[in-house]
Amino acid sequence: MLVNATDMLQKAEEGHYAIGAFNTNNLEWADSIIEAAQQAQSPLIIQCSAGAAKWQKGYKVVSDLVHDLVEVKNVTVPVALHLDHGTYEACYEAMAAGFTSVMYDGSGEKDFETNLERTREIVKYAHERGISVEAEVGSIGGEEDGVIGMGEIADPEQCKIIADTGVDFLAAGICNIHGIYPENWAGLQMDALAAIKEKTGDLPLVLHGGTGIPVEQVDEAIKHGICKINVNTDLQLVFAAAVREYIEAGRDLEGKGYDPRKIMKQGRQAIIDRTIELMGQFGSVNKGWGC
Ligand code: 13P
């Protein structure tokens, strides 16, 4: 059975580690990410953007798939299914479809007041149904599945106001960017993160754009209160590299090497290995979860 993400993230906050939130695209992704969590004995947040849900024919298909995988694989670690960067409307659709957690990304709303009002409303509706909520202040730079952010650094006062809505965890822009970081990237703004943490107390904070951040910066961010680290591009890169290697070696031309299951197998294993590696780096493995 799936859980919401509140309890696992509160434990991460108390234990000073982070839980990976990995984006899924299809059966191969979902199964590999869940497999990694079970093998590593780590709690998991598996998340889906609106674009990836559309690709999979909607939130219901994604939700049913993840619920079924957790059941048939007899998964014993806690798994939450989270909507990544949801609009106001998408949050309600995902909740109706069985997601156990949603992110309402109000960073694109016309003003902070609208973000605040809608966050408050979604928190109330979600909590009545046992669903956890992530909000956003500032914005994440770059583009992900059509969601474009300018990368504003979050205002600690606004973070405090959003925290007081009862939201379960908060994404705050600290110069993090979706996708691959440019050569001239200034790095995560730890001072800004520390100021946000001071205002928001024990509220778990979220780091988006988890691909390609130097390990020392990830460690420091965790020390400053980051409890959830979003990773999407990283798994896409390892999947593509593994499949490319198979094709370039001409293995699809050997016998029945063209069988899609044989081609995908390389990519699946690459996702499992990399997810386990990242979970180890974030410190979420073997913390006494599961049976
Ligand atoms: P990356 O694609 O940079 O890993 O970012 C993922 C993310 O933040 C999803 O919300």
Determine the structural class based on helices, strands and strand pairing.
alpha/beta
Say what the CATH topology is.
TIM Barrel
Put simply, the count of helices is: 11
Helix content estimate: 40-55%
Q: How many separate structural domains?
A: 1
Order of helices and strands: HEHEHHEHEHEEEHEHEHEHH
What is the typical, i.e. mean, pLDDT? Answer: 95
Report the top-level CATH class.
Answer: Alpha Beta
* Beta-strand content bin: 15-25%
Calculate Rg over CA atoms: 18 Å
CATH evolutionary superfamily = Aldolase class I
**Strand line-up in the sheet with most strands:** 1-2-3-4-5-8-9-10
Tally of strands: 10
Bound molecules: 1,3-dihydroxyacetonephosphate
Distance between the termini: 14 Å
User: What summary fits the major beta sheet?
Assistant: 8 strands, parallel, barrel
Q: Uncertain runs with pLDDT below 50, 5 residues or more?
A: none
Q: What shape does the CA trace take?
A: globular
CATH architecture: Alpha-Beta Barrel
Identify the quaternary structure here.
single chain
Description of the molecule:
The protein has 291 residues and is of the alpha/beta class. It is built from 11 helices and 10 strands. The protein has a single domain (6-290), classed as Alpha-Beta Barrel (TIM Barrel). Residues 23, 84-85, 144, 178-179, 208-211, 230-234 line the site of 1,3-dihydroxyacetonephosphate.
Task: Label this structure with key terms.
TIM Barrel; 291 residues; alpha/beta; 11 helices; eight-stranded parallel β-barrel; binds 1,3-dihydroxyacetonephosphate; two-stranded antiparallel sheet
